[in-house]
């Protein structure tokens, strides 16, 4: 039976049901809502990528610099993500992403950083090479983070451990030459 064969009074209900099912499947996975990205190369002008992120109950995030020393030190406290949009250097699928102003509420880092925003209590497990496994309280699964550098940028790939896995890839230009660590394409 085709939609055109349905009685006229039933067609709007069918369309509303199809729209509702599509909207439900397109909603953000809760795994992505517990994770954010931060560009604080200038800590006084930090920008958070947060359609991914919604604040923890306290409204603050911990941050984890994506450097060997930052990962060894573990997540640091704290960053508050504002509501005011700010231009961002982060890109996804070669399209720039809008960020939000972010402010360090504890001691501001001595040097700039690019990294992850995590809810308090997140367990970070380093995985060689240049990968992490993130697990946070109340989450049914985990996210694997792979990061590497190209000639002048940082690539971050987030993959859920769900079946089928969901994957998101991001890039931020660092504005300077760095030693590439990404495998050749």
From TrEMBL:
This is Lipoprotein. It comes from Curvibacter microcysteis. The lineage of its organism: Bacteria, Pseudomonadati, Pseudomonadota, Betaproteobacteria, Burkholderiales.
